[in-house]
Amino acid sequence: MKTYTCIICDQPKPDGIMICSEFICDACESEMVQTDVLDAKYPFFIHRMNKIWYKMNA
């Protein structure tokens, strides 16, 4: 089974989604969509997701 490294948790996982050739595991995706914008972890997710935008604009 092929695994990809999640851009959020940096762990190799077999299941998740690809966004602009970057992988987000199912667990991180689930946590992100349930995180309120006022939650302390929200900025962490934004920072990690920036990898996608930086790569697109490179």
Automatic annotation (TrEMBL):
<protein>
    <submittedName>
        <fullName>Sigma factor G inhibitor Gin</fullName>
    </submittedName>
</protein>
<dbReference type="InterPro" id="IPR019700">
    <property type="entry name" value="Sigma-G_inhibitor_Gin"/>
</dbReference>
<dbReference type="Pfam" id="PF10764">
    <property type="entry name" value="Gin"/>
</dbReference>
